Amino acid sequence: MLLVGDIGGTKTILAVIDPQRGSRNPLAKATFANADFASLDAVIDMFLRDIDIPIRHAVMGVAGPVEKGPFQLTNLPWVVDAGNLRRKFKLRSVRILNDLEATAAAVPHLLPEEVFTLLDGEVAQEGNMAVLAPGTGLGEAFITWEGGNCHVHASEGGHADFGPRNALQRELLGSLQERFDHVGYEMVCSGPGIARIYEFLKKSNPAAEPPWLSDRLRNVQDPTPVIVEAALDRQNPVMLCLESIGVFVSILAAEAGNLALKVLATRGVYLAGGIIPRILPILKKNQFEAAFRGKGKLSAVLLPVPVYVILNTGIVLLGAGLKGLRDCY
Fold first, then answer.
1. In this predicted model, what pLDDT tens digit does every residue of 110-158 receive, in sequence order?
2. Are residues 137 and 86 in the same domain?
3. C-alpha distances in angstroms, 319 versus 102, 211, 325, 327?
4. Looking at per-residue confidence, does 248 or 287 come out higher?
5. Is pLDDT of 272 > 80?
6. How many CB atoms lie within 10 A of CB 217?
7. 218 and 72 in a common domain
8. DSSP labels for 105-118?
9. d(CA 278, CA 234)
10. 117 and 250 share a domain?
């Protein structure tokens, strides 16, 4: 059997794939809170003891740049060592991928119902694709078309310097620069980024936060789900939350356009991660298209580029499984 994993900044999802059943039908699957474990080894050990299924190979998608030998994850104090995992769990092979590399590997295999078209365009028959996934951080990857085949490339573009597009975003950048040595897109275009935008906007208008929301935010470790929920309330949305998500969407759209230009993503840009499907009602508004395609004299280059939202939130596991079945069996 094949063990696959999605190791994010806050949670780890593990699954077991039977080569006969394929990547979409795991024999076992479980989610773990990273804060409850000291290492990836400990998570895998608990999972394998619970399921008692013999494993031959493993493919893990991890949030951060992958290095040869032991390396620490970007937003998690875990050290990942493929050789140690292979020896400890008596596996024939262990492959570690960047999680966006695993995501990108699954993009060409997505089913029609797993994709929502956010912006229509003219899809080139042969061209590149870009993938962005805001979560605990901001993952980026791209797919090139060479010799009739797709080739997946990892990237750490989410850590590139944040470039504000208007006066409000310039103020946001200045506020963050007072607290951090470096402000990349990940700082404002991620789950924690939404919370930072919210706090920045609240400083200029504290009264915009209703008392009930203050109480809820005071009692949670992660404010982002609360902010998103309050913004999407159909009956009585909190305008401060709605504005925060709007700023986040504008920044995400601009960075998606940046990546599309850098890799000439004529076959489309794909947005992944758990946050994106939840905020589709806000994404559909014109501010995404304006920020995505507003690139001055090169706006025309992005005019035909379509943008898709990946609805399959298990895409990292799917991509890891596809890579594992192709490379290990």
1. 999 999 999 999 887 888 999 999 988 999 999 998 877 889 998 999 9
2. no
3. 5, 43, 10, 12
4. 248
5. yes
6. 17
7. no
8. HHGGG--GGGEEEE
9. 13
10. yes
Name the phi and psi angles at 31, rounded to 5: -115, 140
The token pair that represents 273 in the structure block: 């991660």
Co-location of 167 and 272 in the same domain: yes
Query: Rounded to whole angstroms, what are the CA distances from 22 to 19, 56, 246?
Result: 5, 15, 39
Report the Cα 13 to chain-centroid distance in Å. Answer: 14
**Amino acid at site 252:** L
Based on the structure, what is the number of domains in the chain? 2
Q: Show the tokens assigned to 277.
A: 């499907």
The residue ranges of DSSP E strands in the chain, in sequence order, are: 2-7, 11-17, 28-33, 57-62, 71-72, 79-80, 93-98, 115-119, 129-134, 138-146, 149-155, 269-271, 307-310
- What is the model's pTM? 0.91
- Compute the residue count for the chain: 329
Average pLDDT over residues 282-287: 80
pLDDT at 107 over 80: yes
Domain extent, residue 286, equals 111-311
Is 101 in the same domain as 120?
no
Q: In which residue are the tokens 């840009």 written?
A: 269
Share of the chain above pLDDT 90, in %: 82
Residues 299, 229 share a domain = yes
